[in-house]
Give the backbone structure.
Amino acid sequence: MSGCDWQRNHLLSLAGIYQPKQDGSPGRLPLALMQYLEDYPEIRFIVLRLDNDFTGQKAASMLQSILAGAYQVQAIFPPRGKDYNDFLCIQKGILPQKQRDRIEL
């Protein structure tokens, strides 16, 4: 939508699989991210685009601490909505699926 060439960048969905350890320590990187970084050693800059809620912000903080030193890491959260799907729906004037489901009930 913004005219960027999205095919020029590496894109990976973590699909909500990161969970810090119960003791508050960062834990390990998600396996998909570990493998992707191993497969593409040219990557030096990582942008985390996670959910804009407590869990997403905590995961971003933990991932930044794990990756610091080896990578430049930035977390960018959607300016509106819980996640980027909500934000896209807002931009396009579409009700997010969860709101459409409630209306249909």
About this structure: The first helix runs from residue 31 to 39. The helical segments are 31-39, 54-67, 84-92, 97-104. The chain has four helices and two strands.
